[in-house]
Amino acid sequence: MKLFIVRHGETDHNLQGRMQGRIDIPLNATGLAQAEALAERLADEGRSFDAIFASPMLRAKRTAEIIAAKLNMPVEFDADLVEVNMGIFENLTREEAEAKYPEVWAQNPLRRSIYDYIPEGESPQQVEERAMRAILRIKERFAEKTVLVVCHGFTARMINRHMMNLTFDEMHEFILKNCEMVEYDF
Question: Annotated catalytic, 144?
């Protein structure tokens, strides 16, 4: 399967440096323009996909809908593609999280180990397992096809870790920008 992963367009939380996690934030004007520009580019390049999948969260959903409309395709939504649950850090900037939860911040749970997690949140391993469940379900249906998946930054990082067989430390070098796309042969 040829797999294209796209991160959703920009949100106000992205702009403010807030950790979104599971908070369902819509695209801002820039994010809508980014999604439109990506859709236009894909159409201009004559890209075709056999299916488009997305996280059902507003920012990914709307990005996928804009792309799908331009390509005259439907979108299927998969809850296993949602963003990492940032627990007590959700809706906070890094500075706010550090001030409010200094002991947890100092432990840096999402960068210390694949098994660590922010209180009330998810571990990187949990994100990778559920995201890859979604990707494997998609592959079962579209094994020799081309598929576009719209998801989130940390979710994309965990998919990339799996696809590229990266160590936990290596995976942090991968950063997918808003409406950026990466391709894998899977």
Answer: no
Instruction: Please pick, among 10, 13, 83, 122, the residue that the annotation labels catalytic.
Output: 83
| DSSP secondary structure code for residue 8 in this structure | P
8 is catalytic: yes
Residue 131 confidence class, pLDDT cut points 50, 70, 90: very high
Which residue among 8, 10, 128, 152 is the active-site one? 8
For 134-186, write each residue's pLDDT tens digit. Answer: 999 999 999 999 999 999 999 999 999 999 999 988 999 999 999 999 999 99
Instruction: Report d(CA 55, CA 58) in Å as an integer.
Output: 8
Domain chopping of the chain, boundaries: 2-185
CATH 3.40.50.2000 fits 2-185, yes or no: no
Q: Model's pTM, two decimal places?
A: 0.96
CA distance 36 to 88: 33
